[in-house]
Amino acid sequence: MTSGIRFDAVSVAYGGTTVLDRLDLTVEPGEVMALLGPSGSGKTTALRAVAGFVRPAAGRVLIGDRDVTGLPPYKRGIGMVVQQYALFPHLRVEANVAFGLKARKTPKGEIPGRVAEALEMTGMVAYAHRYPRELSGGQQQRVAIARALAIRPEVLLLDEPLSALDARLRSGMLAELARLHRELPEVSILYVTHDQVEALTLADRVAVMDRARLQDCGTPQDLYRRPRTEFTASFVGNANLLPVTVGTGGVAFGETQLKVATDGVAPGAGATLCVRPHLVGLGDGPNALRGRIAEVQWRGSTHRLYVEVDGHRVKADVRELRETPPLGAEVTLHFAPDDAVLLGAGVSDG
Ligand code: ADP
Predict the structure, then answer these.
(1) How many whole angstroms from 77 Cα to the centroid of ligand 1?
(2) Which residue from 10, 11, 12, 14 has its CB within 8 A of the most atoms of ligand 1, so it is best to mutate?
(3) Which among 206, 230, 254 is the end of a domain?
(4) Which of 236, 276, 314, 345 is exposed most, by the fewest CB atoms within 10 A?
């Protein structure tokens, strides 16, 4: 019983405003897909369309090869965990976990075993008789996860499940979720987050959303190394986005000629060159950029240099710098041709 999720041109509108615009996306069976984007970009709406809490204005949602667009939530075979835990305060942990099983009319004799199994998976067996108010935030979220797992869902929907936890708990829970996924390799997981660390750590692939649209989708490594849009480049990791003019075999950045792959982009076009700050080195080399230090930030293991080159600030994260260069000092930066990505011609640099 393995089944993925498919969004087939799904649109959702509230009062005439489109908040999800023709989303096409497939989550493969057993895959973890993160929906990553800023607040208000439509991530939760997409997840709720899979859960059945939002009715699309157009398009279809499929789980496996079943069209579930018109099905009520409880018939979709999904488990869902939201940010605020949403446990029943008057029910003990075990009753909270049993809740979905009872609602789905699971045979009575099966329920205790399924509850125990879910509590086991989330490390909450010892807390079965407690009330939610007797648990920490992290423990409550484990119960919420146990409740979602108890129904043995084909699809697990997680909506910012860690954002109510403090930083230390969050990284522990992130590791827990990765372990759960290894234990349940057949379950497809859709994971909504605005936090790139969560998305990059947990997801097999990341779907980047902005303003109701899917902007980009790929493995974390793809999106980081080969972003397709300026939005992805700056939302997934840090980026220098340099306005350039395309030539043959390279680009012009102001007066400076740079050697980078320009495959398929017509000479003369305006484009944006993306270079990650940690791939920019200090000193002479290929693709040298000369400028003056405008600002320096010491970040423990690196120095972040802001260098004014032809009226643009270029960021370089430099390791093992013995001395902090003084403001105004003339320096040369460089980067390898392979470490730069040319983003679509005609993209504005605003
Ligand atoms: P995200 O999860 O990316 O933060 P949402 O999917 O929650 O974004 O919201 C997308 C847009 O839809 C936002 O502008 C939000 O205000 C709007 N929205 C969400 N739910 C409703 C609703 N029930 N009624 C009206 N507008 C809504």
Answers:
(1) 24
(2) 14
(3) 230
(4) 345
- The total of structural domains in the chain comes to 2
Same-domain pairing of 149 and 31: yes
Q: How far apart are alpha carbons 316 and 304 in whole angstroms?
A: 6
Q: Tell me, yes or no, whether 206 and 135 share the same domain.
A: yes
Q: Does ligand 1 come within 6 angstroms of the Cβ of 41?
A: yes
Mean pLDDT of all residues in 140-153:
93
> Considering 209, 230, 251, which residue would you say is the last residue of a domain?
230
Give 350's pLDDT tier (boundaries 50, 70, 90).
Answer: very low
pLDDT of residue 35: 98
Is the model's pLDDT at 347 over the cut of 50? no
* Sign of the Cα pseudo-torsion (18, 224, 236, 196, in order): positive
Residue 309 domain boundaries = 238-349
Contacts of 16 (CB under 8 A, 6+ apart): none
Distances (CA, A) of 16 to 45, 183, 213: 15, 43, 16
The closest residue, in CA terms, to atom 5 on ligand 1 is 42
Same domain (yes/no): 338, 242: yes
Q: How far apart are CA 138 and CA 132, in angstroms?
A: 11
Q: At what angle do helices 137-150 and 167-183 cross, to 10 degrees?
A: 20
Domain containing residue 285: CATH number:
2.40.50.140
Residue 188 shares a structural domain with residue 334: no
193 lines ligand 1 (CB under 6 A): no
Would you say the CB of residue 250 lies under 6 angstroms from ligand 1?
Answer: no
82-141: pLDDT as tens digits: 887 789 999 999 999 999 899 888 999 999 999 999 999 999 999 999 999 999 988 999
Does 207 contact ligand 1 (Cβ within 6 A)? no
User: Which one of 45, 159, 192 would you pick to mutate in the ligand 1 pocket, going by the greatest count of ligand atoms within 8 A of its CB?
Assistant: 45
